[in-house]
Prior knowledge:
This is DUF2829 domain-containing protein. InterPro entries: Tad2-like_dom. Pfam families: Tad2-like. It comes from Shewanella mangrovisoli. By secondary structure, this protein is an alpha+beta fold. The protein has one domain (about 5-125). It is about 15% helix and about 25% strand. The strands form five sheets. The protein has a three-stranded antiparallel sheet, with no helix packed on it. The radius of gyration is 16 Å and the shape is globular.
Amino acid sequence: MSKDMNNLAFVKSGVNCGAIGEVKVTSNNLSFGEAIDLVKCGYRVARAGWNGKGMFIFMQKGSIDYGDEGLPLLTEGIQSSLFEKGDVGTVTRLPCINMRSASGSTVTGWLASQTDMLSNDWVLLHEPQTN
């Protein structure tokens, strides 16, 4: 693990993720599935194997106008906790996973590589985002 990742990563035995339940975090070497579960809960995660300093992925919640009916449990198969209430009459915006690049730019709609998905060097970076 790089020095930069050692300074950022920490470990918890379990993370409460509301609708998802508790996500087990047992080591600094998380699988892609564990990392994605944490991203859904608002955490930022990164791969220790990434070369760029300060790179991480995070969730951008979607938005939906659900009026007085209340938020549906699923929208296009995606759980309601990943949406915020949108303005009346607006089109539904689906949530997406973004990446902060080494240059500090945001890559909207980041796509994982095969190596990213098969790696077990994902690390949890900090407490969940509150926005």
